[in-house]
Design goal:
This protein has 68 residues and is mainly alpha-helical. It contains five helices and two strands; from the N terminus they run βαααααβ. InterPro entries: Cro/C1-type_HTH, Lambda_DNA-bd_dom_sf.
């Protein structure tokens, strides 16, 4: 898939664990894990907004496009 999810990178930069982020944004650890591994088919804008707010970043810090 040409869309790369860099959520692990942002979590490391913010010194935050996945569990803490999941609690802050109100989703399950399992759903966050699916998103982190790139297995999600999509992401809701409200979820993306919550992630960006919690990590103090922009959507482009999390999502990246690479041609196959």
């Amino acid at each position: 898939m040409p869309i790369i999810i860099n959520l692990d990178v942002m979590l490391a930069k913010r010194k935050m664990q996945s569990k803490e982020l999941a609690e802050k944004i109100g989703i399950s650890n399992v759903n966050l894990s699916v998103l982190k591994t790139g297995k999600a088919k999509g992401v809701r804008f409200d979820t993306l907004e919550a992630i960006c707010k919690a990590l103090e970043c922009q959507p482009g810090d999390i999502l990246e496009y690479k041609e196959e």
